[in-house]
Amino acid sequence: MRIRIGRIVVILMLGAANSAHADNPPTFGRMIIDGEYEDWAAVPVAFEDPAGDNANGAADFGRVWVANDDEYVYLRFEGGALTNLQTISGPLRIFFDVDRSPATGWAVGRMGSDFALLFPERYGIESTSDQWEAARLSHAELALVTAPTVAGTQFELRVRRDAVFPVRGTPILDGPDFDILLESQDTGGVTGDWAPDEGLPLTYKMASGSLVPYQAIPLERGHRRHVRLMSHNMLWDGLLLRPEPHDRLLRAIVPDIICYQEVQRGTAANAIQARLDEVLPLGGGASWHVYKADTNVIASRWPLSMQMRDTIPGTRRGQAMALVDLPDVLYDVDLYVISAHFKCCGNLGSSEDQRRQQQADANVNWFRDLREPGENVDLPAGTPFLICGDFNMVGGPQPLMTLVTGDIIDEAHYGADSPPDWDGSEMKDARPLHNAGPAAYTWRSDESTFGPSRMDFVIYADSVLTVARQYALNTLDMCVEELAAYGLRQDDTATASDHLPLVLDLDFCGQVVPADIDLDGQVNLTDFNRFAACYGLTESSDESCPPRDLLCSDLNGDGAVNMDDFYTLAVRYGQQGRR
Predict the structure, then answer these.
(1) Best CATH choice for the domain 7-205 from the list 3.30.160, 1.25.40, 3.30.700, 2.60.40
(2) What is the pLDDT of residues 158-181, one digit of tens each?
(3) What's the CATH code, domain 227-507?
(4) Which region holds residue 283: left if phi is over 0, alpha if psi is between -120 and 50, else beta?
């Protein structure tokens, strides 16, 4: 049975050491909670708990990292076995003694916990000496964000320092330091693992410093040659039922291709087309091209062909698939797009997770069909393709890994593993960040018990396609001036849907080195020769100039290849030196 150290014993121990100090200095820094840990590279390990001492608890703690900035305290920890933090099988508690007094707060191990984060409950509690749960704080009140959303063996989270205790009425983490202790229990509530061990908390002293302000991502595209893709779960006919915020989002983003999810089955494609024609008129009597399959939609300024409702063999879920016929005067290739909505809900190993794996397997097999002649569908070699949408990745990591790497699980039904890109490599998971703040989640509902999560994805063949600019549009974090500049309102994204729109600018020139027209990695005489062949031409010119060369020679994006572009090319050539 679980044993708690009584308060009298704890107070008697005040003369002895009742907390462990981190051996390394605290870190002042901004962490992006996205399930990727590169930004933690400069943060030292605060402490390490021995492996294998979990005694059947839900987690077996390992290394723990702590950092802070002026707004948040950040925590990263290893949890041992693969599990979902938001739906973990047994209680996982993160205790904070904010006044570092064992005599106040709830007696836990060798500390008095004033505040705790509870999983899988997904909320925080304020504790007093007499009440374990004196008050509850929702994930929204705490600005609590965790990652990854899929199952993992380590996790990161943030909690807002100025969130207020309901009972005390003071900020939860505004002091110079705090004690922290992690506890894992089994499903019966018996302690499985402490971190640090023996219930001895770690003392973390708040770091101070200054950060470069977060650089907001401009909403407009960086170059006219970019093809702008938007993927958005509109929340069940939101474009039609909540038109005002959707209209403002569309006018601020100005997409060329739109992938929608959660369009009601009874809603016709021409209803979406009519709304887009009204909000984003194309001019000249042209109309948007819209294809709808199940609850998914692909809408494009340009014609759509190769339209299909599902893969063969099928996902058994349905998805919209089509080839976007990009203008030949600008692009040498077209773009194949899949708009998908993966099975909702569940957790690691659930039936819902198995359905998501089935969908991932079916799509990787379809990618192979796209690339290899014969079978059901063929693309010209090197045609860019992508899959996007609400993937509902809340279970295991394998479905996402399958889409990226081509690792098919049900090979008997969907064939052998198949690296999905044209060059036999993995696909690219775009991972756009918010336009106005350091965050990566794409779904948020403050009324839900589930915290913000990364549900929406764009995965593309990056051997033939470059993304120049990308973001998840979140108006909640935009300043008044930014909102006014783009004709938006603070609550537009939250009112439009519980999902954020993902925006990617696709660059078919793919210039890693600016002004490298022939894409050989350097600016040299060959680029001048190609530029000369296109000099003086515009998109409407009849002269012979390959569309890609014309597009890529227009370095300033004004629609013509002229002296302004020549100056840019000459400067880049001079900066690189003659080769």
Answers:
(1) 2.60.40
(2) 999 999 999 999 999 999 999 999
(3) 3.60.10.10
(4) left
